[in-house]
Amino acid sequence: MMIESVGIIGVGMIGGSLAHALRAQQVCQKIIGIDADTDALAWALNANLIEQGWQQVADCPEVPQVVIICVPVASMRTVFAACQDWFRQCTAITDVGSTKQSVIADLQAACSPLPTNFVPAHPIAGREQSGVQAAVPDLFTGKKVLVTPTAETSPESLMQITELWQQIGAEVEYMNADRHDQILAATSHLPHALAFALVACLAEQTETPEIFRYAAGGFSDFTRIASSDPALWRDICIANQPALTAAIERFEETLQKLRAGLQTQDADALQSMFQNAKNARDKFTQS
What we know:
Elements: E1 3-9, H1 13-24, E2 28-34, H2 38-46, E3 52-54, E4 66-69, H3 76-82, H4 84-87, E5 92-95, H5 101-110, E6 118-119, E7 121-123, E8 144-147, H6 155-167, E9 171-174, H7 177-203, H8 208-213, H9 217-223, H10 230-239, H11 241-263, H12 267-286
Parallel strand pairs: 1-2, 1-4, 2-3, 4-5, 5-6, 8-9
Antiparallel strand pairs: 7-8
Helix pairs in contact: 3-5, 7-11
């Protein structure tokens, strides 16, 4: 059954891509955008991504049937507080935050007890570009969406959000919030932190212009994600600090083994490390 209306809070790259996809797949009759940035709302209206645009939740004259919160994790608590009336009226509310335990904790602080119609979710999709102008209709096609329902999440709301993601081409998987944060710390948050750290390290050297001038494809491939929004990733790293810190510590242990192999010129140890890494990545990319 087609959803009557979807409210998207945060009309940026993710929120705009959702609007694109919902429109393309005719998932809902109406899309309402809410964003403090009037330029973003104007762009989305002109691009026919939304029917209505409001700067604040309180400005919106109607309550959407389904709400998707697409703001940075550091802004979640403020948005939850503004949505308290909507939690009592919407059939389902979800988010796209890159951390899940912090989002659930922010909801608990703003709306205790936890609403039964809230379905935490995280689409494993993105781009280095930000803003609604970077939105694309196929961002979520074939991508995984990790849904981490709370103990209070109702089966009806869970099903509605699951079907919404499936209708725009995503593959939905379920896990608990703690496991989500551990996995994403290792596979997403740590790689971003390392890319930022490497470029920052090189940028501090006196011969920086020459280093970047002769950087080859490997440097570009490894550091591509360092072009992501620094403030967004700062907040993600802080929100997932326990799991990310643990991932950094494990990585430091591997770096120490690499350094020891180099210092002792242990070719067998280096070959074993590099070969194991290649085998693991080849298996991952071929699956």
